[in-house]
Amino acid sequence: TAIENDFGVKAIYSPANMAEPGEIANMISFAEKTFGRIDVLVNNAGIQRVALAQKMAHADWYGVLNTHLSGMFLCAAEAIRRMRPHRKGAIVSIASVAGIVAIPGRGPYSAAKAGIMSLTRTLAVENATEVREAEAQVQAAEGVLRSERGVFDPSLFADADRSREEWPKSSSFSETEHETTIFNVGAEADLRTGGHVRAGVES
Question: What pLDDT does residue 135 have?
Fold first, then answer.
């Protein structure tokens, strides 16, 4: 695979529905069995559904919340169970400027990203006390996506319910986001937990 070729590491693919606890448990368990233990978790799964609140389908609302926020919670819970016995681990959850700034038409996305920021701090507090006593910690940090389409786009008010297929697909990790994630799982971040890292937000 490209990851194996670029970084000289072993990579596997294990699909899982972020709204299904059983599938997530199987995914994490498969990774643990393949690599021996779980050292790092990066929560980056996400989808986008765009519409004003009064036009947002319930299925779209729950789909976004489940993928971003519930998926982050379920993956973190499974990973933490496996990290704590080893007294070491790092969790990076990708957040967004949308969790701080109001973006018309992005209600569920904004709610999910704000939830990720808050849940990150909660997980850090829950794990820091016990793990710190063991002279280690489960790190948790949230990255902020480099750019957000539509932050200053007035057309959302007039056309926020356009077909979801017309909206751009989620962008892949940028170099800045990659570097931010690497920092948060490395030794340089050993003394920080529950932090918020802005990865060069652009308008």
Answer: 26
Rounded to whole angstroms, how far apart are CA atoms 67 and 58?
14
Radius of gyration of the chain (CA): 18
Q: Decide: residue 106, CB within 10 A, 0-12 exposed, 13-18 middle, 19+ buried.
A: buried
3-state helix/strand/coil string of the chain: CHHHHHHCCCCCCCCCCCCCHHHHHHHHHHHHHHHCCCCEEEECCCCCCCCCHHHCCHHHHHHHHHHHHHHHHHHHHHHHHHHHHHCCEEEEEEECHHHCCCCCCCHHHHHHHHHHHHHHHHHHHHHHHHHHHCCCCEEEEEEECCECCCCCCCHHHHHCCCCHHHCCCCCCCCHHHHHHHHHHHCHHHCCCCCEEEECCCEC
Question: C-alpha distances in angstroms, 146 versus 40, 150, 173, 180?
Answer: 22, 13, 9, 11
Give per-residue pLDDT as tens, 78-104.
Answer: 999 998 888 888 888 888 888 888 889
pTM of the model: 0.72
Selected catalytic residue, list 69, 109, 113, 124 = 109
Query: What confidence tens digit (pLDDT) does each residue in 149-203 have?
Result: 444 444 444 444 444 444 444 444 455 556 666 666 666 666 556 565 555 433 3
> Is residue 62 flagged as an active site residue?
no
